[in-house]
Amino acid sequence: MTRDLPPALAENVGFLLSITSARSVAMANAALVPLGLKARGYTALSLVAASDGMSQRDIAEALRMDPSQVVALIDTLEGKGLVERRPHPGDRRLRSVVATPEGHRVRKKAAKVIKDSVSALLTDFTEEERTVLHGMLTRLATGRTTTPA
Amino acid sequence: MTRDLPPALAENVGFLLSITSARSVAMANAALVPLGLKARGYTALSLVAASDGMSQRDIAEALRMDPSQVVALIDTLEGKGLVERRPHPGDRRLRSVVATPEGHRVRKKAAKVIKDSVSALLTDFTEEERTVLHGMLTRLATGRTTTPA
DNA sequence: TATTGTTATACTCTATAACTATA
DNA sequence: TATAGTTATAGAGTATAACAATA
Question: Which domains does chain B have, with CATH numbers?
Answer without folding.
Answer: 12-135 (1.10.10.10)
